[in-house]
Design a protein that fits this description.
Helices cover 45% and strands 10% of the residues.
Protein backbone atom coordinates (compact mmCIF):
# COMPACT_ATOMS: atom_id res chain seq x y z
CA UNK A 1 0.00 0.00 0.00
CA UNK A 2 1.29 3.43 -0.94
CA UNK A 3 0.90 5.90 1.89
CA UNK A 4 -1.21 8.85 0.79
CA UNK A 5 -1.74 11.78 3.16
CA UNK A 6 -3.54 15.03 2.56
CA UNK A 7 -3.55 18.57 3.79
CA UNK A 8 -6.94 20.16 3.29
CA UNK A 9 -7.11 23.86 4.27
CA UNK A 10 -10.00 26.21 3.58
CA UNK A 11 -9.20 29.44 1.67
CA UNK A 12 -11.04 31.65 4.14
CA UNK A 13 -8.27 33.72 5.70
CA UNK A 14 -4.61 33.92 6.57
CA UNK A 15 -2.62 30.70 6.92
CA UNK A 16 -2.76 29.49 10.55
CA UNK A 17 0.48 28.38 12.22
CA UNK A 18 -1.37 25.32 13.50
CA UNK A 19 -2.23 24.43 9.92
CA UNK A 20 1.40 24.90 8.95
CA UNK A 21 2.44 22.40 11.63
CA UNK A 22 -0.11 19.84 10.39
CA UNK A 23 1.11 20.33 6.82
CA UNK A 24 4.71 19.69 7.88
CA UNK A 25 3.77 16.58 9.83
CA UNK A 26 1.88 15.18 6.85
CA UNK A 27 4.75 16.13 4.55
CA UNK A 28 7.38 14.37 6.65
CA UNK A 29 5.24 11.27 7.18
CA UNK A 30 4.75 10.92 3.42
CA UNK A 31 8.48 11.33 2.76
CA UNK A 32 9.42 8.81 5.44
CA UNK A 33 7.16 6.19 3.86
CA UNK A 34 7.89 6.98 0.20
CA UNK A 35 4.31 8.18 0.02
CA UNK A 36 2.34 10.97 -1.57
CA UNK A 37 1.34 14.34 -0.11
CA UNK A 38 -1.95 15.62 -1.53
CA UNK A 39 -3.05 19.24 -1.27
CA UNK A 40 -6.81 19.71 -1.36
CA UNK A 41 -8.39 23.14 -1.11
CA UNK A 42 -11.75 22.84 0.66
CA UNK A 43 -13.47 25.69 -1.13
CA UNK A 44 -17.15 24.77 -0.87
CA UNK A 45 -17.95 27.72 1.40
CA UNK A 46 -18.41 30.11 -1.51
CA UNK A 47 -19.47 33.01 0.70
CA UNK A 48 -16.14 33.07 2.53
CA UNK A 49 -13.68 31.86 -0.11
CA UNK A 50 -11.45 34.27 -2.00
CA UNK A 51 -8.91 33.41 -4.72
CA UNK A 52 -6.16 35.37 -2.98
CA UNK A 53 -6.52 33.17 0.08
CA UNK A 54 -5.83 30.11 -2.07
CA UNK A 55 -2.73 31.77 -3.48
CA UNK A 56 -1.74 32.65 0.08
CA UNK A 57 -1.92 28.97 1.05
CA UNK A 58 0.34 28.01 -1.84
CA UNK A 59 2.80 30.80 -1.02
CA UNK A 60 2.88 29.83 2.66
CA UNK A 61 3.54 26.19 1.83
CA UNK A 62 6.31 27.27 -0.55
CA UNK A 63 7.86 29.29 2.26
CA UNK A 64 8.04 26.39 4.71
CA UNK A 65 9.53 24.09 2.10
CA UNK A 66 6.47 22.31 0.71
CA UNK A 67 6.96 23.68 -2.75
CA UNK A 68 4.64 23.64 -5.73
CA UNK A 69 5.34 20.75 -8.03
CA UNK A 70 6.58 18.49 -5.23
CA UNK A 71 3.12 17.30 -4.23
CA UNK A 72 -0.10 16.14 -5.83
CA UNK A 73 -2.60 18.92 -6.41
CA UNK A 74 -3.89 21.37 -5.57
CA UNK A 75 -7.29 19.84 -5.99
CA UNK A 76 -10.46 21.78 -5.23
CA UNK A 77 -13.27 20.26 -3.23
CA UNK A 78 -15.87 22.13 -5.26
CA UNK A 79 -14.88 20.06 -8.30
CA UNK A 80 -16.17 16.93 -6.54
CA UNK A 81 -19.74 18.13 -6.08
CA UNK A 82 -21.05 15.33 -8.29
CA UNK A 83 -19.32 12.66 -6.21
CA UNK A 84 -20.66 14.22 -3.00
CA UNK A 85 -24.25 14.15 -4.25
CA UNK A 86 -23.87 10.60 -5.57
CA UNK A 87 -22.64 9.43 -2.17
CA UNK A 88 -25.57 11.11 -0.43
CA UNK A 89 -28.00 9.43 -2.81
CA UNK A 90 -26.32 6.05 -2.30
CA UNK A 91 -26.72 6.35 1.46
CA UNK A 92 -30.35 7.39 1.09
CA UNK A 93 -31.28 4.67 -1.37
CA UNK A 94 -29.58 2.10 0.83
CA UNK A 95 -31.66 3.07 3.83
CA UNK A 96 -28.65 4.51 5.65
CA UNK A 97 -29.88 8.10 5.49
CA UNK A 98 -33.26 9.80 5.61
CA UNK A 99 -34.77 13.21 5.04
CA UNK A 100 -35.75 15.41 7.96
CA UNK A 101 -37.70 18.66 8.12
CA UNK A 102 -37.22 19.33 11.83
CA UNK A 103 -36.11 22.77 12.91
CA UNK A 104 -33.92 23.39 15.91
CA UNK A 105 -36.89 24.97 17.65
CA UNK A 106 -39.03 21.89 17.03
CA UNK A 107 -36.39 19.56 18.42
CA UNK A 108 -35.99 21.77 21.48
CA UNK A 109 -39.74 21.84 22.05
CA UNK A 110 -39.90 18.05 21.95
CA UNK A 111 -36.87 17.40 24.14
CA UNK A 112 -37.35 20.33 26.49
CA UNK A 113 -33.64 21.10 26.31
CA UNK A 114 -31.51 23.37 24.17
CA UNK A 115 -28.50 21.14 24.78
CA UNK A 116 -29.88 17.75 23.78
CA UNK A 117 -29.11 16.58 20.28
CA UNK A 118 -31.46 15.49 17.54
CA UNK A 119 -34.06 12.96 18.75
CA UNK A 120 -34.54 10.87 15.58
CA UNK A 121 -38.08 12.12 15.05
CA UNK A 122 -38.03 11.74 11.24
CA UNK A 123 -36.33 8.33 11.11
CA UNK A 124 -39.43 6.45 10.02
CA UNK A 125 -41.55 9.19 8.46
CA UNK A 126 -40.46 8.28 4.94
CA UNK A 127 -39.94 11.86 3.79
CA UNK A 128 -38.53 12.51 0.36
CA UNK A 129 -36.21 15.31 -0.72
CA UNK A 130 -37.62 18.79 -0.69
CA UNK A 131 -37.06 22.38 0.32
CA UNK A 132 -36.07 22.67 3.98
CA UNK A 133 -35.41 18.94 4.27
CA UNK A 134 -31.91 17.94 5.33
CA UNK A 135 -30.50 14.46 4.78
CA UNK A 136 -29.46 12.75 8.01
CA UNK A 137 -27.26 9.69 8.44
CA UNK A 138 -28.93 6.88 10.40
CA UNK A 139 -26.40 6.00 13.12
CA UNK A 140 -26.45 2.50 14.62
CA UNK A 141 -28.63 2.10 17.70
CA UNK A 142 -26.16 -0.05 19.56
CA UNK A 143 -22.54 -1.06 19.60
CA UNK A 144 -19.57 1.27 19.52
CA UNK A 145 -17.26 2.86 17.00
CA UNK A 146 -13.60 2.29 17.78
CA UNK A 147 -11.16 4.78 16.30
CA UNK A 148 -7.59 3.54 15.89
CA UNK A 149 -5.42 6.62 16.39
CA UNK A 150 -1.63 6.59 16.13
CA UNK A 151 -1.35 9.26 18.81
CA UNK A 152 -4.35 8.68 21.07
CA UNK A 153 -4.64 4.92 21.13
CA UNK A 154 -8.14 3.57 20.49
CA UNK A 155 -10.80 6.03 21.68
CA UNK A 156 -14.21 4.37 21.59
CA UNK A 157 -17.56 6.09 21.08
CA UNK A 158 -20.91 4.52 21.95
CA UNK A 159 -23.11 4.68 18.88
CA UNK A 160 -26.25 5.44 20.85
CA UNK A 161 -24.64 8.70 21.93
CA UNK A 162 -23.99 9.79 18.33
CA UNK A 163 -27.04 11.61 16.99
CA UNK A 164 -28.32 11.12 13.46
CA UNK A 165 -26.17 13.83 11.92
CA UNK A 166 -26.83 15.91 8.81
CA UNK A 167 -24.83 14.96 5.71
CA UNK A 168 -26.60 17.19 3.15
CA UNK A 169 -28.49 20.46 3.45
CA UNK A 170 -31.99 21.17 2.24
CA UNK A 171 -30.63 22.38 -1.12
CA UNK A 172 -28.79 19.09 -1.62
CA UNK A 173 -25.32 20.46 -0.95
CA UNK A 174 -23.14 18.23 1.25
CA UNK A 175 -21.86 19.28 4.65
CA UNK A 176 -18.22 19.03 5.65
CA UNK A 177 -18.50 15.55 7.17
CA UNK A 178 -19.67 13.87 3.97
CA UNK A 179 -17.62 15.93 1.52
CA UNK A 180 -14.47 15.30 3.50
CA UNK A 181 -15.02 11.54 3.54
CA UNK A 182 -15.93 11.30 -0.13
CA UNK A 183 -12.88 13.36 -1.13
CA UNK A 184 -10.56 11.21 0.96
CA UNK A 185 -12.05 8.05 -0.55
CA UNK A 186 -11.81 9.42 -4.09
CA UNK A 187 -8.19 10.46 -3.59
CA UNK A 188 -7.16 7.20 -1.97
CA UNK A 189 -6.09 8.77 1.30
CA UNK A 190 -4.65 6.14 3.65
CA UNK A 191 -3.68 8.30 6.64
CA UNK A 192 -5.51 11.33 8.01
CA UNK A 193 -3.17 13.45 10.15
CA UNK A 194 -4.98 16.47 11.49
CA UNK A 195 -5.67 18.60 14.55
CA UNK A 196 -7.21 17.23 17.72
CA UNK A 197 -10.26 19.47 17.30
CA UNK A 198 -11.50 17.10 14.58
CA UNK A 199 -11.48 14.05 16.86
CA UNK A 200 -15.19 14.38 17.85
CA UNK A 201 -16.07 14.19 14.13
CA UNK A 202 -14.02 11.07 13.58
CA UNK A 203 -16.54 8.41 14.68
CA UNK A 204 -19.13 9.99 12.39
CA UNK A 205 -16.71 10.03 9.49
CA UNK A 206 -15.63 6.48 10.17
CA UNK A 207 -19.27 5.38 10.10
CA UNK A 208 -19.61 7.10 6.72
CA UNK A 209 -16.51 5.36 5.36
CA UNK A 210 -17.91 2.00 6.37
CA UNK A 211 -21.43 2.80 5.10
CA UNK A 212 -19.97 3.70 1.72
CA UNK A 213 -18.19 0.37 1.59
CA UNK A 214 -14.63 1.55 2.16
CA UNK A 215 -11.99 0.86 4.76
CA UNK A 216 -11.39 3.90 6.98
CA UNK A 217 -7.96 5.52 6.95
CA UNK A 218 -5.44 5.40 9.76
CA UNK A 219 -6.18 8.35 12.02
CA UNK A 220 -3.72 10.57 13.88
CA UNK A 221 -4.97 13.60 15.80
CA UNK A 222 -2.14 15.93 16.77
CA UNK A 223 -2.48 18.14 19.85
CA UNK A 224 -4.23 21.46 19.65
CA UNK A 225 -1.96 24.54 19.69
CA UNK A 226 -2.67 26.91 22.58
CA UNK A 227 -1.55 30.33 23.81
CA UNK A 228 0.08 31.17 27.16
CA UNK A 229 -3.34 31.02 28.85
CA UNK A 230 -3.78 27.51 27.46
CA UNK A 231 -6.54 28.70 25.17
CA UNK A 232 -6.74 27.38 21.64
CA UNK A 233 -5.01 29.81 19.30
CA UNK A 234 -7.64 32.08 17.79
CA UNK A 235 -7.44 34.25 14.68
CA UNK A 236 -9.50 36.87 16.48
CA UNK A 237 -7.34 37.00 19.60
CA UNK A 238 -3.86 35.68 18.89
CA UNK A 239 -1.10 36.24 16.39
CA UNK A 240 -1.57 33.11 14.29
CA UNK A 241 -0.98 34.08 10.65
CA UNK A 242 2.11 32.45 9.21
CA UNK A 243 2.37 35.32 6.73
CA UNK A 244 2.63 37.82 9.59
CA UNK A 245 5.63 36.00 11.02
CA UNK A 246 7.22 35.76 7.57
CA UNK A 247 6.77 39.50 6.95
CA UNK A 248 8.12 40.33 10.40
CA UNK A 249 11.34 38.61 9.48
CA UNK A 250 11.20 35.09 10.82
CA UNK A 251 13.30 32.66 8.82
CA UNK A 252 11.51 29.72 7.25
CA UNK A 253 14.05 27.26 8.70
CA UNK A 254 13.53 28.61 12.20
CA UNK A 255 9.76 28.58 11.87
CA UNK A 256 9.46 25.02 10.66
CA UNK A 257 11.97 23.77 13.23
CA UNK A 258 9.91 25.40 15.96
CA UNK A 259 6.57 24.20 14.61
CA UNK A 260 7.79 20.62 14.64
CA UNK A 261 8.56 20.94 18.37
CA UNK A 262 4.90 21.59 19.16
CA UNK A 263 4.18 18.18 20.62
CA UNK A 264 7.39 16.39 19.67
CA UNK A 265 11.13 16.63 20.36
CA UNK A 266 14.27 15.26 18.66
CA UNK A 267 16.63 12.97 20.48
CA UNK A 268 19.01 14.29 23.11
CA UNK A 269 18.85 17.54 24.99
CA UNK A 270 18.47 19.72 21.92
CA UNK A 271 15.81 21.61 20.05
CA UNK A 272 17.56 23.51 17.28
CA UNK A 273 18.50 20.82 14.79
CA UNK A 274 18.95 20.60 11.02
CA UNK A 275 15.82 19.77 9.06
CA UNK A 276 17.44 16.53 7.93
CA UNK A 277 17.50 15.38 11.57
CA UNK A 278 13.79 16.15 11.95
CA UNK A 279 13.00 14.26 8.76
CA UNK A 280 14.96 11.29 10.03
CA UNK A 281 13.84 11.23 13.66
CA UNK A 282 10.23 12.40 13.63
CA UNK A 283 7.79 9.68 14.63
CA UNK A 284 4.08 10.36 14.55
CA UNK A 285 3.55 7.77 17.28
CA UNK A 286 5.83 9.79 19.59
CA UNK A 287 3.79 13.00 19.38
CA UNK A 288 2.57 14.02 22.83
CA UNK A 289 -1.25 14.16 22.88
CA UNK A 290 -1.27 17.06 25.37
CA UNK A 291 -1.92 20.61 24.19
CA UNK A 292 1.12 22.31 22.64
CA UNK A 293 2.04 25.83 23.81
CA UNK A 294 2.95 28.23 21.01
CA UNK A 295 5.51 30.41 22.78
CA UNK A 296 6.30 33.43 20.62
CA UNK A 297 9.17 34.45 22.90
CA UNK A 298 10.79 31.08 22.39
CA UNK A 299 10.22 31.28 18.65
CA UNK A 300 11.86 34.70 18.64
CA UNK A 301 14.90 33.32 20.46
CA UNK A 302 15.01 30.44 17.97
CA UNK A 303 14.96 32.87 15.10
CA UNK A 304 17.78 34.93 16.57
CA UNK A 305 19.92 31.80 16.78
CA UNK A 306 19.14 30.96 13.17
CA UNK A 307 19.96 34.51 12.05
CA UNK A 308 23.32 34.46 13.83
CA UNK A 309 24.15 31.12 12.21
CA UNK A 310 23.73 32.48 8.67
CA UNK A 311 26.82 33.21 6.58
CA UNK A 312 27.10 36.99 6.35
CA UNK A 313 26.39 36.95 2.62
CA UNK A 314 23.14 35.06 3.22
CA UNK A 315 22.20 37.43 6.02
CA UNK A 316 22.71 40.44 3.71
CA UNK A 317 20.50 38.80 1.07
CA UNK A 318 17.85 37.85 3.64
CA UNK A 319 17.58 41.49 4.78
CA UNK A 320 16.86 42.81 1.31
CA UNK A 321 13.02 42.81 1.49
CA UNK A 322 13.15 45.08 4.55
CA UNK A 323 15.76 47.34 2.98
CA UNK A 324 13.73 47.86 -0.19
CA UNK A 325 10.11 46.98 0.61
CA UNK A 326 7.78 44.49 -1.08
CA UNK A 327 4.08 44.07 -1.72
CA UNK A 328 3.59 42.96 1.89
CA UNK A 329 6.57 44.59 3.63
CA UNK A 330 6.60 48.36 4.12
CA UNK A 331 9.29 50.36 2.38
CA UNK A 332 12.05 51.65 4.68
CA UNK A 333 12.06 55.33 5.71
CA UNK A 334 14.92 56.36 3.43
CA UNK A 335 14.79 57.20 -0.26
CA UNK A 336 15.85 54.26 -2.48
CA UNK A 337 18.65 56.30 -4.03
CA UNK A 338 20.12 56.99 -0.59
CA UNK A 339 20.65 53.33 0.22
CA UNK A 340 24.31 52.32 -0.02
CA UNK A 341 24.79 48.55 -0.28
CA UNK A 342 28.50 48.86 0.44
CA UNK A 343 27.82 50.70 3.70
CA UNK A 344 25.19 48.14 4.64
CA UNK A 345 27.55 45.25 3.94
CA UNK A 346 30.09 46.91 6.23
CA UNK A 347 27.73 47.01 9.22
CA UNK A 348 25.80 43.82 8.46
CA UNK A 349 28.01 41.58 10.66
CA UNK A 350 27.44 43.98 13.56
CA UNK A 351 23.68 43.99 13.08
CA UNK A 352 23.49 40.24 12.60
CA UNK A 353 24.42 39.57 16.22
CA UNK A 354 21.87 42.04 17.57
CA UNK A 355 18.54 41.31 15.92
CA UNK A 356 16.04 38.52 16.52
CA UNK A 357 13.82 39.17 13.48
CA UNK A 358 14.89 40.61 10.15
CA UNK A 359 12.51 43.57 10.30
CA UNK A 360 14.64 44.97 13.15
CA UNK A 361 17.41 45.64 10.66
CA UNK A 362 15.77 48.91 9.59
CA UNK A 363 15.99 50.56 13.02
CA UNK A 364 19.59 49.42 13.35
CA UNK A 365 20.86 50.93 10.10
CA UNK A 366 18.47 53.75 9.19
CA UNK A 367 20.89 56.41 10.49
CA UNK A 368 23.25 55.49 7.64
CA UNK A 369 20.75 56.22 4.88
CA UNK A 370 18.65 59.08 6.23
CA UNK A 371 19.80 62.68 5.63
CA UNK A 372 19.44 63.37 9.35
CA UNK A 373 19.22 60.96 12.28
CA UNK A 374 15.73 59.76 13.26
CA UNK A 375 14.09 61.86 15.98
CA UNK A 376 13.59 60.14 19.33
CA UNK A 377 12.71 62.75 21.92
CA UNK A 378 12.96 60.29 24.79
CA UNK A 379 16.47 59.30 23.72
CA UNK A 380 17.45 62.95 23.38
CA UNK A 381 16.17 63.82 26.85
CA UNK A 382 17.95 60.85 28.38
CA UNK A 383 21.36 61.51 26.80
CA UNK A 384 21.61 65.28 26.55
CA UNK A 385 22.31 66.28 30.15
CA UNK A 386 24.07 69.36 31.47
CA UNK A 387 27.51 69.69 29.92
CA UNK A 388 26.59 67.69 26.81
CA UNK A 389 27.10 70.68 24.50
CA UNK A 390 30.63 71.19 25.79
CA UNK A 391 31.39 67.49 25.51
CA UNK A 392 30.10 67.36 21.95
CA UNK A 393 32.10 70.44 21.01
CA UNK A 394 35.34 68.96 22.34
CA UNK A 395 34.56 65.65 20.64
CA UNK A 396 33.90 67.37 17.32
CA UNK A 397 37.20 69.21 17.47
CA UNK A 398 39.10 66.06 18.38
CA UNK A 399 37.40 64.02 15.66
CA UNK A 400 38.10 66.61 12.99
CA UNK A 401 41.78 66.54 13.92
CA UNK A 402 42.11 62.77 13.50
CA UNK A 403 44.59 61.78 10.78
CA UNK A 404 42.81 58.43 10.30
CA UNK A 405 39.05 57.86 10.46
CA UNK A 406 38.98 54.40 12.02
CA UNK A 407 36.89 52.82 14.77
CA UNK A 408 39.93 52.34 17.02
CA UNK A 409 41.08 55.94 16.60
CA UNK A 410 37.56 57.26 17.23
CA UNK A 411 37.20 55.21 20.39
CA UNK A 412 40.58 56.27 21.79
CA UNK A 413 39.79 59.90 21.04
CA UNK A 414 36.43 59.88 22.80
CA UNK A 415 37.90 58.03 25.77
CA UNK A 416 40.44 60.83 26.13
CA UNK A 417 37.82 63.57 25.75
CA UNK A 418 35.67 61.90 28.38
CA UNK A 419 38.54 61.29 30.78
CA UNK A 420 39.40 64.99 30.69
CA UNK A 421 35.91 65.60 32.09
CA UNK A 422 35.90 62.73 34.57
CA UNK A 423 33.63 60.58 32.42
CA UNK A 424 33.99 56.93 31.58
CA UNK A 425 33.51 55.93 27.97
CA UNK A 426 29.92 54.75 28.48
CA UNK A 427 28.87 58.17 29.75
CA UNK A 428 30.92 60.07 27.20
CA UNK A 429 29.57 58.22 24.19
CA UNK A 430 25.86 58.54 25.04
CA UNK A 431 25.45 62.14 23.72
CA UNK A 432 27.54 61.31 20.67
CA UNK A 433 25.45 58.23 19.87
CA UNK A 434 22.18 60.15 20.08
CA UNK A 435 23.56 63.08 18.09
CA UNK A 436 24.70 60.80 15.28
CA UNK A 437 22.23 57.88 15.26
CA UNK A 438 19.22 59.38 17.04
CA UNK A 439 19.01 56.52 19.53
CA UNK A 440 20.52 55.50 22.85
CA UNK A 441 21.11 51.91 21.70
CA UNK A 442 22.20 50.44 18.43
CA UNK A 443 25.20 49.06 16.61
CA UNK A 444 28.68 49.53 18.08
CA UNK A 445 29.20 53.27 17.97
CA UNK A 446 32.71 53.63 16.63
CA UNK A 447 32.31 51.09 13.83
CA UNK A 448 29.11 52.96 12.91
CA UNK A 449 30.92 56.29 12.82
CA UNK A 450 33.64 54.81 10.64
CA UNK A 451 31.06 53.72 8.05
CA UNK A 452 29.04 56.96 8.32
CA UNK A 453 32.16 58.94 7.50
CA UNK A 454 33.93 62.00 8.83
CA UNK A 455 31.86 64.65 7.10
CA UNK A 456 28.40 63.29 7.98
CA UNK A 457 29.45 62.57 11.56
CA UNK A 458 30.77 66.08 12.01
CA UNK A 459 27.62 67.62 10.52
CA UNK A 460 25.36 65.70 12.89
CA UNK A 461 27.40 66.55 15.98
CA UNK A 462 27.40 70.18 14.91
CA UNK A 463 23.63 70.13 14.46
CA UNK A 464 23.17 68.61 17.92
CA UNK A 465 25.30 71.34 19.47
CA UNK A 466 23.17 73.94 17.73
CA UNK A 467 20.01 72.35 19.09
CA UNK A 468 21.42 72.38 22.61
CA UNK A 469 22.07 76.11 22.20
Amino acid sequence: MTVRVRFAPSPTGMFHVGGARSALQNWIYAKQHDGVFVLRIEDTDAARNRPEWTEGILDALDWIGIERGSYEGPYFQSANAGEHRAAAEKLHSGGLAYYCDCTREAVQARTGSQYQGYDGFCRDRGLGPGEGRALRFRTPDDGATRVVDLIRGEPTFENKLIEDFVIARGDGSPVFLLANVVDDMTMGITHVIRAEEHLPNTPKQQLLWEALGARPPVWAHVPVVVNEKRQKLSKRRDKVALEAYRDEGYLADAMRNYLMLLGWAPSGDREIVPWSVIEDEFRLEEVNPSSAFFDEKKLRAFNGDYIRALPVEEFVAACDPWLTGTATIAAPPWRPEDFDPVAFAAVAPLAQTRIAVLSEIVANVDFLFLPTPPVDEAAWAKAMKEGSAELLGATLAAFEALPEWTADALKATLEEVGAQRGLKLGKAQAPVRVAVTGRTVGLPLFESLEVLGRERTATRIRDAIGRLG
